[in-house]
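Quick start: what a row looks like.
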Amino acid sequence: MSSTATLPELISEAQTTEEQFLRQIFVRDQMAEWSKQPLIMARADGVHYWDVSGKRYLDALSGTYAAAVGHNNRRVIAAIHRQLDTLHFSPPMHGTNPVAVQLANVLAELAPGDLSAVKFQCGGSEVTEAAIKLARQYHKLTGSPGKYKIIGRYLSWHGSTMASLSASGLKSRKTVNEPLAPGFLHVFPPTCYRCPFGKKYPDCGITCATIVSDVIDMEDPATVAAIIVEPIGHTGGIIDPPDEYLPLLREICNRHNVLLIFDEIITGIGRTGRMFAAETFGVTPDILCVGKGLGGGYAPLSAMICRKQIGDTFWGPIARNPGFVEGHTFEGNPISCAAGLAVLQEILENDLCANARAQGARLRVGFERLARKHGVIGDIRGKGLFQGIEFVRNPATKEPFPAQAAFGVRVGRRALENGLLCRFDPNWLAFGPPLISTAEQIDEMVAILDRSLGEVLAEVPVG
């Protein structure tokens, strides 16, 4: 291409030439590996993607748990168009806009308990970072300035910004960025299938929860500000806690004046079969963070919703109360908020939470069928349309596949070759399809996984 080429010519070239695509060098975590078989999506509709070669993929991942109401949803797109014609940006330093106020009111009405104060951000990392800041500032304003430590969990992932990363417990993403921010502690997650304490549920005393109180005592409760957890952990392999776990955390936080933060970036907005996983588990946190599905993948949007008592703490004369010191240029953006309102309307009017429960039950049956057929699925975890399977060499002993086999990765990549987009790691694989998914589409997703699993097993000896 000549250096004198026009912009339309450059755009046309970039849309048709793989070399041009590969100039976006940080499109993946490992560009050299990705470039061997680059995946470049061209369009999407409903629960399907098509790549630039015209190949169709079933989206069993909602993009990345974001496309809650599916792709090419005309209601959401129309709402964005209308907002573009009215107001595309409002000055966040000086005030807000009607659509942001409307969305905040809707979220406050939908959120459980007295979660009623809303702060918008653009993405998950920003909003979990904001929650950490809110917890520390809250304690300073309420006479406990020494409470600054944040307890997270190993295997967790709360985002890429420095505080959210520091709260995370995934070594593969932390080590390369260390040293991280001070004041962050970690405890083991409720991985019942492979209990880190060598116990078995239900005779375990829920040690994974009760030990959190011991950690707070050992650290000194006067120094601990908050606990941050995903109600269902993602990066550890869909860590679905026992029923007693989150209620115990709630009681521990109450006892020690520690705020409980739910990171619902993935589990919120209908994913577990209720609007929030807090409702699924019957536990109300002090701060609830949502993202991904809230904007439906149509616009960057996340929100932090906190209890009224916490919100009220930041209200008062500026001379003695600076308010919540946190801000971003695109927070409460009217385009994003218009998308968020349309997404929530779509979920509520079509009762997509009920559909998530129904199709989630169907998905569970499908996974159970694959477990019986192939003999390499040791555990099935999750709720609603957020479920995963753990691969093992021997279900009776829970013996995993050798690390070098990267069995889950092989299955996930074969599924991609066969036209199925899902989340996969060396030892596990997860589905998180759009909430609009039908029974037929769930069955087709499971069928492709079935085929892919069988093909990989024909190549990888199990015995």
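That is the whole record. The mean pLDDT is 93. Residues 352-374 form the longest helix (23 residues).
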